[in-house]
Every structure is written in structure tokens, then in C-alpha cells.
Specification:
77% of the residues lie in helices and 0% in strands. It is mainly alpha-helical. Helix 2 packs parallel to helix 10, helix 3 packs antiparallel against helix 10 and helix 5 packs antiparallel against helix 6.
């Protein structure tokens, strides 16, 4: 396989590197309140576009069939909102005796208690040929559950409490996830023949939107003047995230192939995805 062919095949990974580099060079472009207005274009328009795109690309039968996989949904939600936060807490108890920055460890625990990132979970599941319909359901359902469960988990593991604007979060999720998906399904009924004939690149379109989300997220990160971390802690945290990610992906694969036969791994979040993208959802 030639270099150009390899780059063409792995364009999304290359795109991630490029958007992070671009964010590092000029973070003011994609920062909140900046020219791109990510608080509107990303939080509402981009996420809505992703689920409208999914509504167009998925057959209605696939969505209704996905709702019937009760064992899969139970596995995903228990793994995400019970097993994963608990396992991270136990792991961080061991790390608490190391010289790693305390706030980075608390940040990992906070991220571990979050529901799955809605758009990235769906896009990445689609990119690897997973069950996109099941990913959509579990990402949306997990986000709604997270409105209640995440504050309780943070109180349990970190002893911190906060007020949650349930109504605004619920309405935002409904308007950016459920409504665009339904509209996409309605539109699909009228242009179904054209879609099947032309086969638009739905996966590539969603991946491009995700790159935009990643870009604005890192713009906010690099534009933050209060970030002052020692290199040792930062490097160790990156290594920990990678190790935890690989370990839990293997564990998820192992359990999902036993508990949910003939189902792909869908919508299982990991620390890196949630850390980088949770703000946008």
C-alpha cells in the first residue's frame, strides 16, 4: 500500500492531527465567543447535523430493531454509568499516592462519571462498521440518564454537589438529538430512491463535522491561560488514558461477545473521547 493510498484511507486520523495543530497555532478562531461561534455552530448546528445525517442514512427498520435489543442497552448503560466510574475510582485510589497532579486525577474521575458523548459515539461506531442505530439509542438514552445519575456519581466519588439545570439540558438534548433524527427519517421517506441510487457519503460527512467539534474543543483548551501543568503529570495522564482506553475496549469486547451475541460494540465511551468532546454535547 503506497503512502498516498494509506493517507487517503486514514484521512480521519490525519485530520485529527491537523485540526489539533491548527487549534494550537491560532486558538482564538474557534474559541467560545470567537469568529466561529462554537457555542451555537457546534453545540446546536453541528450536533443536529450529525443526527439529521443519521436519520437520513438509517432505515426505519434498523432503528426500530435496535430498540428491541434490551440486553445490549442494559449492558451499555450499566457499563457506562456504574462499572466504568467505579473502576476508575478504584484505579485512582492507587494513583493518589503518586506525585501526579491531584486536579488531573479529579478531572479523570469527573470525566469517568459523565454519560457518553452523543455525537462522537455515533460517528465512531459508524466509522468502524458497528451498530449505528444501537449507538444512537444508547448515546441519547445515556445522556438523558446522565442528567440525574452524573451529579449523584460526583457526589459519591468526589463529595462535590452542584445544581443541574434539568429543563435546559433535557430540552437541548431533545432539540439537537431526537428532533433532527426524526426529521431525517421523515425526509428519507421522500428521497429514499435517490439516496439508494446516489449513496451519499454519510460517514465522511459526519466525520468532518466531528473534526470541527474536535477543533473548537482544543481551541478552548489552548486558549485557557489558567492551564499550568507540569510535563510529568501531563505525560503520565496521557499514558494512563491510553492504557485505560485499550483495557476497557478489550474488556468491553470480551463481555459484549458473551452477553450480547451477534452485536457490535456500540456507544461505549472511554476517557479520551469524554475528556476531549464532552463539552460539545
Amino acid at each position: 500500500m503506497g503512502l498516498l493510498e494509506r493517507l487517503r484511507k486514514e484521512w480521519f486520523i490525519l485530520g485529527i492531527v491537523l485540526v489539533i495543530a491548527a487549534a494550537r497555532l491560532e486558538p482564538a478562531v474557534g474559541v467560545r465567543g470567537g469568529p466561529l461561534k462554537p457555542e451555537i455552530t457546534i453545540t446546536y448546528i453541528a450536533v443536529s447535523a450529525i443526527f439529521f445525517n443519521s436519520g437520513l442514512s438509517l432505515k426505519t427498520e434498523e432503528l426500530t430493531s435496535a430498540l428491541m435489543h434490551v440486553k445490549l442497552h442494559l449492558f451499555v448503560q450499566i457499563f457506562t454509568l456504574v462499572f466504568f466510574p467505579t473502576a476508575i475510582w478504584l484505579f485512582l485510589q492507587l494513583l493518589s499516592i503518586t506525585p501526579i497532579n491531584e486536579w488531573l486525577l479529579k478531572g479523570l474521575q469527573t470525566v469517568g462519571c459523565m454519560p457518553p458523548p452523543v455525537s462522537s459515539a455515533v460517528i465512531l461506531t459508524k466509522a468502524v462498521g458497528g451498530n449505528e442505530a444501537a449507538a444512537i439509542f444508547n448515546s441519547a438514552f445515556g445522556s438523558f440518564l446522565g442528567i440525574v445519575i452524573t451529579p449523584l456519581l460526583l457526589l459519591l466519588f468526589l463529595g462535590s454537589s452542584s445544581s443541574v439545570p434539568f429543563t435546559s439540558i433535557f430540552s437541548q438534548l431533545f432539540m439537537t438529538v431526537v428532533v433532527p433524527l426524526i426529521i431525517g427519517q421523515i425526509v428519507r421517506r421522500y428521497i429514499k430512491d435517490w439516496l439508494e441510487r446516489k449513496k451519499p457519503p454519510f460517514g465522511a460527512i459526519s466525520s468532518c463535522v466531528l473534526l470541527m467539534i474536535i477543533y473548537t474543543t482544543f481551541c478552548d483548551t489552548f486558549a485557557n491561560p489558567n492551564i499550568d501543568l507540569d510535563k510529568f503529570s501531563l505525560i503520565i495522564i496521557v499514558f494512563i488514558i491510553f492504557s485505560v482506553q485499550m483495557s476497557f475496549m478489550f474488556l468491553t469486547f470480551l463481555f459484549s461477545t458473551r452477553v450480547v451475541k451477534s452485536q457490535s460494540i456500540t456507544a461505549i465511551p472511554h476517557p479520551l473521547k469524554k475528556m476531549d468532546l464532552h463539552r460539545c454535547h
